[in-house]
Amino acid sequence: GAVVAGRLVGEKAFFAAYGALQEQVWKPVNPLLGEQERTRWTEHGEKRQREVLDQLYKQFRPVEPEFIHLADARYVTGNGRVPAQAGMLWRGRLSEVGGFSVGTVA
After folding, report:
1. Residue 95 gets which letter from DSSP?
2. Structural domain boundaries enclosing 56
3. Fewer CB within 10 A of the end CB, N or C, for the chain?
C-alpha cells in the first residue's frame, strides 16, 4: 500500500480541476480540443452532482460514496517525507482505503 496526503475536495471540484488540467495539456496542440476537454470534464462533475442530489432528495435514498477525491495530493515516501513539489489530483476507491488521518502532515 501507499500513503497519500492531500486536501479533500468534492467530486464536482475534482472534475473541474481535472478538466482544467486536460485543457493545459491539449491547448498547445489544439486550443479547441483543450477547451472541449475542460468543458467535458466540468460537465461530468456537474452531472454527477445532479445525479447524487436527485437520488438523495427525490428518491430519499442515502448516497453511499464510492470514491475519495484529493487535490494537491502527494505520496508520502518510505522515510515519512512528503515531497515538496506541487501536488496532483488523486482519486481512490473508498473500498480500497485501509485507514485515514485528519490533519496536516508536517
Report:
1. G
2. 3-96
3. C
Is 7 a member of any domain? yes
Concatenate the DSSP letters of all residues of 7-70 into one string. Answer: EEE-HHHHHHHHHHHHHHHHTTT-HHHHHHHHHHHHHHHHHHHHHHHIIIIIS--PPPP-EEEE
In a domain, 67, yes or no: yes
Q: Into how many domains does the chain fold? A: 1
What span, in angstroms and rounded, lies between the C-alpha atoms of 7 and 86? Answer: 12
Residue 65: is its pLDDT beyond 70? yes
State pTM to two decimals. Answer: 0.78
For residue 106, being part of any structural domain is answered with no
- Does residue 80 carry a pLDDT above 70? no
Give the pLDDT band of residue 37 (cuts 50, 70, 90).
Answer: very high
Mean pLDDT of the chain: 87
